[in-house]
Amino acid sequence: MNSIRLIAAKETGELLGSGRGLGWLITLAVVLSAFSLLLVGSTELSLLDNAQAVYMVMGTITALGGLLAVVVGSDAIAGERERGTLVPLLLTPVSSTGIVLGKMGAQLAAWVAAYVVALPYLWAVGSSGQNLGAAVLYLALFGTPLVIGFGFYALGLSARLGNVRNAMLVALITLILAASPLVLGPSLRQSGIGKMFDAVNPFSAALNAFDSVVIDSDPFGMQIGRLGVVLAWLAVTALFARASARRLEGT
Amino acid sequence: MKHWILALAFACIGSMGLAHAQTAPRLSIALSPAPGNPPSPEMGNWMHFRSVVRNTGAAPAQSVVAWIGLVRVDAGHEQPMDLEDWSAHKAVVIPSLQPGQSFTTEWPMRLIQNGDYRVVISAAERHAQRLDSSPFVDLHVRVKPTVESRRILPVAIGVPLLLGLIAGLRLRRRA
After folding, report:
1. Rounded to two decimals, what is the model's pTM?
2. Residue B55 is part of a domain; what is its CATH number?
3. How many pairs of residues across A and B have Cβ atoms under 8 Å apart?
4. Chain A nearest-CA residue for B111
5. Which of A20, A23, A125 lies closest to B152 in CB terms?
6. Domain of residue B52, residue span
7. What domain count does chain B have?
């Protein structure tokens, strides 16, 4: 466990500990600021109910979290290989599973940092207070497994493809596909294929849960199926990352 | 003789026109706000209007197209409004209206902008020579700031600045 913590601490330090490392977090805050100012400045967007504005900000934060996970995860193994530090890492007395957990510990820390930065924005757009507490809770409940799942997925690709660029491309395309409900209206998802896609897409599950709780004030009981989809995504991608990392032990 | 023939021809044409007018469908349109509308509507509210298109003529009306129109009448801002953001339910087609038959439609509308407006329903029948329209329903939409800039501006400016400050301090510490 100490080795895992050491890896996690090192990776977290690179992401959050240095001044330069915070650049991504500042950029994320600037994006959220721009979106929030758009909500104020645009007449059409400013008509949104507070609940709808909160829902949109939640979707944006989740998408940005997924992007963060894809970028960091793609570099996790392939980046070490390209920098010549993968072999020394594999020679340490840490199992491949331990390496995965250590790397993902840093991703979790980065997501937590992004989540904390996002909280003031949620408060700012949710001025009527409708379901704001639920929004904060459900963003953590659904956003965390979704984002970490993308991290596992990208890490697994990083281990298998051995090249940061290729891993990032595949992971980004997958993320864009999964996050397409953000830009597709509900009417476009009413076809048979659209409904099937919604049923298995963890991003859709998260967005639908946000919509259901924040806008429609539905209870937790209605979100159990959606939570199941997101947790299944986390489990499958974790197994994928573990199996992919184990292949390195044989190389 | 020629004059008699010409007079007879004009009389025939005139009587054909009169007969057509008497047998052509005639539409009357009533428009009223639906019950349940907010008494003092403001930006962002939904309102519903109910129209009744009735065929008061002696002939059936075919393929009647009815649509909603909105005109802003604030002094200096008079203009017909593009309903793209106001309403997705812009027109209905009534395939056939028999004499005496009526067709009721509910028109939802989201109030996008504050101001004074007049709502009207217009209808055109396939063979009609003129447009039919309802009386106006007048509407005053109050202004409402939905997203509070007082909360957003400090956060939108303050959070990046604060993070930048933290990053700057860390860079200085390491230098």
Report:
1. 0.68
2. 2.60.40.10
3. 91
4. A47
5. A125
6. 25-168
7. 1
